[in-house]
UniProtKB/TrEMBL annotation:
UniProt keyword annotation of Coiled coil present: no
Organism: Flexivirga caeni
Alphabetized Pfam families for the sequence: AAA_16
Domain Cytochrome c positions: 166-317
UniProt keyword Heme, yes or no: yes
Highest taxon of the lineage: Bacteria
Protein name: ATP-binding protein
């Protein structure tokens, strides 16, 4: 079929043509926005899931919903090598601008607090050229959000931004992707700030997205975090939603999939949104015409898998050292050694089973395991067990030997 009309979008964080299977999350968030705008109590939101399930896509869709509600929004992506002050300052700066508050003096006051919060990152005695400027023209407000204690400063910062939004009967939403990569001190401060603004009924929320162990990261920081956030696990799509993700875009281009082709696609992709887009794109290109058949899927599968092996799996595998790769392969082998009735959806395995495969003591493997955890290639959903953060990664490792 015509490759120019190919509707599928297998890009990182790129919104697919049909956002199937996420209607409940979108409806719930609309209710959250409206409740907060009316002064009703609500919790901030945390999305968790494996890579490739569409967390970033959903995060962006939720942000779009906030924009439609005329909220002020800002977004940042957490990185292990960066503290929170600068990216959060940029996100809040954008959110304040989006609010469009009519009283410029009030806006300048809050912008000055944001600037003060950002510049405190350089230290109190830093020279002017060493102070990062978030692009704010308003003068920094001394004595507000600039104590150097991130917890105190964050509470003051978000309180001021929330007060500005409350004046307009709207809210501010800050969206944080890869939230599990925040520094531990920043996580603690963020939880404390969310707690304070919730108690003050200010219209400001944090919407975070991260890997499955993010709730454990938050809980380790503040014991009350499990009551502070509304957690939503984002998983692979059920069959009906997966079919819709393929069929709806095809029908928009006057094409369709046979029922047997849809069955074959679900078996191949496991219902994971990124894989659906990747396989769908290749299947469209190889199919001679509509409808796409199961035979077309059989032809497309090797090409789709080869592309995933390079761009999705291989790029992550290359980040690991030789010792870490050995650990990853042992995880894949340990999963196959687990009786089928005892396996879970993510093929998690005991750390002791990995040690058994390698013929080593578990303690000697701790450095490799910890390094892989920090790189976001594996996660620990419960004590003593680990799993890949990427679906089908074990299958990929077993295929490459």
């Amino acid at each position: 079929m015509d490759p120019i009309r190919n509707p599928y979008a297998p890009g990182a964080g790129q919104r697919p043509p049909e956002l199937a299977g996420r209607d409940d999350e979108l409806r719930t968030f609309d209710v959250v926005l409206e409740r907060i705008a009316r002064g009703r109590p609500e919790r901030s939101v945390v999305l968790t899931g494996l890579r490739g399930v569409g967390k970033t896509v959903l995060l962006n869709a939720l942000r779009s919903a906030a924009v439609r509600a005329k909220w002020g929004t800002g977004k940042l992506e957490a990185r292990p090598d960066q503290r929170l002050r600068r990216p959060l300052s940029s996100a809040l700066h954008q959110a304040v601008r989006e609010l469009g508050h009519s009283q410029q003096a009030d806006v300048d006051q809050v912008l000055g607090v944001i600037k003060s919060f950002a510049q405190r990152d350089a230290g109190p005695n830093a020279k002017l050229r060493e102070r990062w400027n978030p692009g704010i023209d308003a003068p920094a407000v001394t004595g507000r959000a600039d104590s150097g204690d991130i917890e105190i400063d964050l509470v003051e910062l978000l309180s001021d931004a929330g007060g500005l939004a409350a004046d307009m009967g709207r809210g501010v939403a800050i969206f944080i992707d890869e939230m599990q990569d925040l520094d531990a001190e920043d996580v603690s401060a963020l939880c404390a700030a969310c707690h304070e603004i919730s108690q003050a009924s200010l219209p400001i929320i944090v919407v975070g997205a991260g890997l499955p162990h993010l709730p454990a990261v938050l809980s380790a920081s503040k014991s009350y975090s499990e009551r502070l956030f509304r957690y939503a696990r984002i998983d692979r799509l059920p069959r009906e939603a997966a079919d819709r993700a393929l069929q709806s875009p095809a029908q928009e281009e006057d094409a369709e999939f046979e029922s047997a082709a849809l069955e074959a696609m679900y078996v191949a992709t496991g219902g994971y949104p990124y894989f659906i887009q990747a396989y769908g794109k290749v299947a469209w290109d190889v199919a001679p015409g509509s409808p796409v058949t199961a035979a077309d899927i059989a032809v497309a599968a090797p090409a789709a898998e080869a592309e995933l092996a390079v761009g999705f799996f291989g790029s992550r595998y290359e980040r690991a050292t030789p010792g870490e790769r050995e650990y990853l392969r042992a995880m894949a082998d340990a999963a196959t050694a687990t009786p089928e009735e005892e396996r879970d959806d993510v093929e998690s395995v005991p750390t002791s089973a990995v040690a058994t495969v390698l013929g080593r003591k578990p303690q000697s493997l701790s450095p490799a395991r910890d390094a892989l955890l920090k790189k976001g290639l594996i996660y620990s959903g419960e004590r003593g067990r680990i799993a890949f953060t990427v679906p089908h990664f074990g299958r990929y490792l077993r295929s490459v030997g």
